[in-house]
Design a protein that fits this description.
This protein is 42% helix and 28% strand. It is of the alpha+beta class and 99 residues long. α1 runs antiparallel to α2. The radius of gyration is 13 Å and the shape is globular.
Amino acid sequence: MPLRLRIAAAAARDIDRIAGYSRRHWGSAVAVRYVTGLWQAIGRLRRTPSIGSNYGEILEGVRRYRFRSHTIYYVVLKDSVRIVRILHVRMSPDRHLPD
């Protein structure tokens, strides 16, 4: 059974920004496909949260999972997966992840 999904406010803003950027630069059809794929990746994390790599050496309890040009940073809790941020691969997680 998939874990419950919790999305931090910052991660929700990330998804909105990714959708907007994609729409402006590549059109609505590409934006829809990309964001749909992103949600599918998040669904995989709910079903198999261990597929991401451990990022705990940088920030305790955080894992990461790459989806195309973005990395999903998340925490696995007892009954849920909490998406913390979704950052472009060129963005520094040290600057954008919560302490």
